[in-house]
Every structure is written in structure tokens, then in C-alpha cells.
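Sequence only, no structure available. Ideas?
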Amino acid sequence: MRSIPAPAVRFLRSFSRDSWYRGFILVLTFLCYTTYHLSRKPISIVKSELHHNCSSSGPRNHSNSTTWCDWKPFDQANYKELFGALDNAFLVAYAIGMFISGIFGERLPIRYYLSGGMVLSGLFTALFGLGFYWNIHELWYFVLVQILNGLVQTTGWPSVVSCVGNWFGKGKRGFIMGIWNSHTSVGNILGSLIAGVWVSKAWGLSFIVPGIIIACMGVICFLFIIEYPEDVDCSPPQHHTGSEEKDLDGGLSIGDGSLNVSSNSQENIIDVAESVKEPTEEREAISFLAALRIPGVLEFSFCLLFAKLVSYTFLFWLPLYIMNVAHFSPQKAGDISTLFDVGGIIGGITAGLVSDYSGGRGTTCCVMLILAAPMLFIYNSVGHSGLGITIVMLLICGALVNGPYALITTAVSADLGTHESLKGNAKALSTVTAIIDGTGSIGAALGPLLAGLISSSSWTNVFYMLITADILACLLLSRVVYKEMRGWCGRYTRKRGFKEF
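Reply:
I predicted one. C-alpha cells follow.
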């Protein structure tokens, strides 16, 4: 038999069928959640256009002369509070809906749940932009659309994390999900750039175009998403390493596909093997209270509350902050704000890689949170003294703020959703993810609201609030960090004791 001469073909054939399917699912879910964030970002870009600096605007060619500068009802002195109300309408609805979404996500097919949510998200995103063409100036309309959009957007995160968790084991989960989680930052960047194209011309298109994009992606998701590897005759992943999955009665450990028995009965092997091979249709969804009892769920949930408070304050207010402090145009402020998300990509990948190598998810998050606090202070103090400093500080702050947030919402959620106490039942993934992200979303709702209220006195006070939130997030992980450090010390002691013996 002749060898294949083309090196590229030999490279492609070196990957197994399972690898191709896993890569496909990773790319598809990446694109799905990219469009979720792409459709959330326009509001932060359009804020600066809804309330414009009229004294420097000059005449504009809108057909309605009453809206040549500001867009009612955001033309009043309390416009920041009104913007905060818009942000909160979305985020409070998102936080409440997330706890419910995880329960539905465990019991409905991901293909229908995810694709339906994406189409509805596209509809409500476009409806906000249509307010420009329909000449709507009622606050209740924009608030209502934000509430409905916040509810349907909760279909995304539990579904994509659950799907990826079903396909990928724990071995390189932090690194893989760190790269995969860059969809958040990529979506923010694309949303900023797309919205920026029309923000000063016809801001309605800044919402309508992203709405069309996410709806189209929802159709693609419906046609191609695969929930479980077994559905296409692929092998399921190994969710636990040998050191983690030790039977309390004795000596069973599972790692890298092998079984090691130290002393106890053969029944343990049979029980675990059956749970690992349990077919998809026999899995039962875990209850909400049972998910709360999984070790680490509460600590990481409340840590994410404060971490997400910081991240979403930047998401919704950074372009306006840059425009006010650095005096850039709305489009330029939006473009520069994307550097924060570029830093977030770097931070998410770094956090995943370090946590995989060290085995300490909590410690990795804690270290990044500790470093983030002084960096936020420095950015507010000297971050706008020059373009070069602005770029560097935005990249560093984005990495340190979004790194822990990305790690908790991806690898940590997947780890806890496939915890060894669940005995191989991965049906907890969606519920655990929803609990963690739902709690975090409470912080995401509080952050922009507090920023809107506090910024009227001083932007510096907003940064003090963000620094305090980072410190609290770090303190909430102290018990997890202590346990991880004890584990490292124990392994080091056993290793030295073995060598001395």
C-alpha cells in the first residue's frame, strides 16, 4: 500500500474520529456564546450617543429635530441613573432567570433549548434597535425589552458549559476551557466594533445587526449541536483523575482510563464502572439543593458574585468612562475599550493553564484577584496619561479581572458539575453552572447599578468600589485555598517520607 504523499493529509488523518467531533463541538459552542456576548455589548457603546455632548455636537441630520442631539428620555440630568436602570433591567432578569434556566437545561434537549434562546435573543436585541426607527421615547419600552432579553439570554451559559463538559474530561480542562472561554472577550470585541460602525449614524443598526447574527447562529446550532459523545458513537471522557476519585471505603482510584485496586472488595469496581458507562437516557437530573451540597459550590458562587460585579461594571461602563476621562469620541472610546477584552483572553488562558499545572483552581483565582486590586487603582490614577500607558493598563487589568471570572465560570463549574461525589452522573452540570453563574449575575446586576449611582460623585469612588469587591472575592476563597495548600503540603510530605524510607 502506497503512503500518502501530502503532509497536510497525513496530519489530518493523525486525528481520531473522536478528536474531530470534540474539536467541532468546541468551535460550535465557541461561536454560539460569542454571539451571545456580541448581542449584549451594543448598549455600552450606544449610551454615549443616547446622551451626547450637545455643546460640541453641531447640527445633525436627523429627520426629527427634537432628537438632533440626545435621545429622549435620556436627555435629562439623571441620564446615568436611567442607563443604570437599563443595565439592571437586563442583569436582574438574567440573575433570576439563571437559577431557573439550569433546572430547565438539565431536563430539555440542549439543541432545542439553546437554539430557541438564541433566536429569541436576536429578536429582543433587534427590538431595542427598532426603537430608533419607530421613534420610541418611552423608558418602559426599553426596560421591558431589556428584561425579556435578559431572561432568554440565560439559556446560553448553562447549555454550552454542559455540552462542553459532556465532551471533555478534566485532564486539560482548565487550559482548553481557558482558550474556549475567550468567546466572551471575542464577542465583546466584535459587538463593540459592529455597534461602533453605526453608533453615530443610525444607532438602531448597532442592535439590529447583532440581533440578526445571533438568530442566524441559533439556526446553525439547531442543525449541528450534539449533546453527548454517545449520540454519535464517540467515547465519553474521563471526568476525574486518579488522585481525586478515591473510594472512601478503601482503595479504588480511576485515572487515565485505568482502575487501581489497593485492598477492598470487587463490588466497588463494578459500581463505579457501571456509573461511568451509564447510558445517556438513564441519567437523572440533580436537584437544586443537592447541587448546593457539592463541596466548593457555595464558595465559588459567592466569589463569582464579586468578581463578576467588577467585570460587568467594565463591560457596561468602560466606553463611557474612557470618553469622559480621556475625551475621545464614542466610536474611538468603544474601540479602545476592546483592549480590556483582549487582556481578558490572555488572563483566561493563563488562569486555565496555571490551574491545570498546579491543581489549584481556587489559589489561581485568589492570586489574580490580589494582583487586580492595586492595578485598578493605578489604572484610575495614571491610566490616561498617555495612549501607550492606556493600552498597557487596559491589557493588564483585563487579564487580572477576567482571568478568575473566566476560570470559575468554565473549568471550576465543569469540575464541580462532574464532582466525584456524583458518581459519574454528569447531569448536574447545567444546574451547578446555573447556580454559580446565577449568583455571579447578582453581582453583575449590582456593579453597573452602583457605578451609575457612584459615578455622579466621582469615577475614583467607582474604582474604590471595584477594588473592595476584588478583595471580598479573594477572602471568600480562603477556605478553598487553605484546603488546596494543605493538599500540596501533604503530597510533598508523603513524597519526602517515601524517599527517606
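Residues 237-276 form one domain.
Hope that gets you unstuck.
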